[in-house]
Amino acid sequence: MGRPSKKAERTEQILAAFQRCVARSGLEGSTLDQIAEEAGMQRSLVRHFAGNREELVRTLAHWVIGNSVPVWEEFKAGIPEDNPLDYLLDGLFEEKNTNPETVLVISALTFSAGNDPDLAKMLRNWINSFTQDIQTILGSIFPQAKREQVDAVAFGLVSLNFNLDALSPLNIGPEYRRAARTCAESLISTLRNASE
Amino acid sequence: MGRPSKKAERTEQILAAFQRCVARSGLEGSTLDQIAEEAGMQRSLVRHFAGNREELVRTLAHWVIGNSVPVWEEFKAGIPEDNPLDYLLDGLFEEKNTNPETVLVISALTFSAGNDPDLAKMLRNWINSFTQDIQTILGSIFPQAKREQVDAVAFGLVSLNFNLDALSPLNIGPEYRRAARTCAESLISTLRNASE
DNA sequence: TAATATATTATCAATATTGACAATTTACCC
DNA sequence: GGGTAAATTGTCAATATTGATAATATATTA
User: Fold this and answer.
1) Which stretches make up the HTH tetR-type domain (chains A, B) (predicted)?
2) CA distances from A29 to A60, A65, B68, B167 (A)
């Protein structure tokens, strides 16, 4: 009995708003009032559903990381038999497939991770698994390449992808996106040469 | 006549302290009191020498960018005739030659550049010239490589370098540094193959 | 030593931000 | 319709942060 709970829905709205705010103004630059306004509700509601600031930040970290998992899993599940490389590169570097928000929030959280060992561990694990997945993908495409080479290339792809998103507030030109794509292809070609 | 001015010295102390604070807590996460304490002086002095917050941030951007120039120029001037590549890679990726602070501050400024077109332009120019310098260096080492390839590799080196510094708050292991170095060498090897 | 320009300290007001909680309203069930 | 649990609104105090300026101390020169 009693009124039906909107906790799940409201929490989702709040975190989505928080993510947008952080991507725009950074973590410490996002006040509870801004988050509330972005979410279209009063600050009291933010507190009611998401607790105080400390809890809210912690929840955001879990939420962002948690959200990225199914998206990435779906992406991995969609890897085609033929031409998996183009699929991978399109997913990582084509503008239409890219939303800088996640990486910007991760970047903002990384800053404050310097003062929060738990958060640092969480982000390390996230980046590790992301990188390792790419290593696995590349390893299956180039089974004869050396493991060390594959790992290095995977790290390179992640770096290129992160850097592109991190620079997005500067409104850099499309030539940077092309350079990243070209660079990624060059990197992968080193695996091809090594494995043939 | 009158008491000798300490403006230059004090301003330097303030900006150096501000830089440390920003690298640790981000731009909006650094209060004037924290900056003052880090600089070992009262907030009143910070205001007296560096103006209000807006001026202080603007000054910091100019200072960080300005400071990076002579360091980089000196580095470029030291490029040896034989084995310039190892010199370049050591400079970009060896821990002993690296101080993440500058990149962390640039990263923090990049965030707020989304709301400050002037700042965005400044940072774009900075990254442009940094990237172009590396393009020039690579181009002189591999004169027969295609320009597009050289540009892509230069962007790749910058991305690897930035990413490594940006992840430093996470206390990532040395394997990431090795991966970055290995990846950079792979990238450069693509130029070598193309030019021979 | 007096004049002077600057550093340094001390302090106040204005605003921003957060934390907390009471009061009210709303939707569902019996 | 009455009871109930939760949403929603409203409000207050405590603290943090900034902006600004007066008051004082100090080092240099004439």
Assistant:
1) 8-68
2) 15, 21, 26, 20
Structure token digits, residue B45 = 């002095």
Which residues on chain B are in Cβ contact (under 8 Å) with A120? 169-171
CA–CA min distance A23, chain B (Å): 8
What pLDDT, in 10s, does the model give residues B56-94?
A: 999 999 999 999 999 999 999 999 999 999 999 999 999
pTM score of the predicted model: 0.94
Domain boundaries, chain A: 1-51, 62-195
Q: Is the CB of A121 under 7 A from strand D?
A: no
Q: pLDDT at position B26, please?
A: 95
Could you give the count of Cα atoms lying within 13 Å of B148 in the half-sphere of its Cβ? Answer: 8
Angstrom CA distances, A167 to A89, A174, B72, B148, B165, stand at 19, 12, 21, 21, 14
Asked whether residue A76's C-beta has any atom of DNA/RNA strand C within 7 A, the reply is no
Q: What is the DSSP letter of B5?
A: P
Question: What value does the mean pLDDT take over residues A49-61?
Answer: 97
Banded pLDDT at B194 (limits 50, 70, 90) = low
What is A1-51's CATH number, 3.10.580.10, 1.10.10.60, 3.30.70.1710, 3.50.50.60? 1.10.10.60
